[in-house]
Write a structure and sequence with these properties.
Blueprint: H1 3-17, E1 19-20, E2 27-32, E3 35-39, H2 49-61, E4 65-68, E5 72-77, E6 82-87, H3 93-111
Antiparallel strand pairs: 1-2, 2-3, 4-5, 5-6
Length: 114
């Protein structure tokens, strides 16, 4: 994954979990891992369980399934027309969780756009 792509996906996650700054669109209120305000290039959703865990919990609270095993990440709800089974490759659980979060948020935002 390229740096620009990671930053773009982290912004999508930042908007989902928090909000953009009113006067600076690259500043986000996220309130994760002891951080409140952060610039998009400083977000660590892609590489830190402390950052991604609150996002997973928010998805579960909607309520949607987000199951993490040793081999696979399962995201979604069949009734709502979204389900992803993402294999964990080379023991990199964070990569599969991140992919599941991004795919879910993109689907959720599309489904709920006004």
């Amino acid at each position: 994954m390229w740096i620009d792509e990671i930053e773009q996906y982290n912004e999508i996650i930042g908007e989902f979990i928090g909000r953009r700054g009113k006067y600076n669109s690259s500043l986000f209120w996220v309130n994760v891992a002891g951080v409140k305000w952060v610039y998009s290039h400083e977000m660590k959703f892609h590489c830190s369980m402390d950052w991604i865990d609150p996002v997973v919990e928010k998805i579960r609270s909607l309520p949607f399934l987000f199951t993490i095993t040793n081999d696979i990440v399962i995201v979604g709800h069949i009734r709502d027309g979204f389900e992803r089974n993402i294999p964990i490759k080379d023991g990199k659980k964070i990569d599969a969780i991140y992919q599941g979060v991004v795919e879910f948020i993109e689907w959720y935002n599309f489904k709920n756009r006004k």
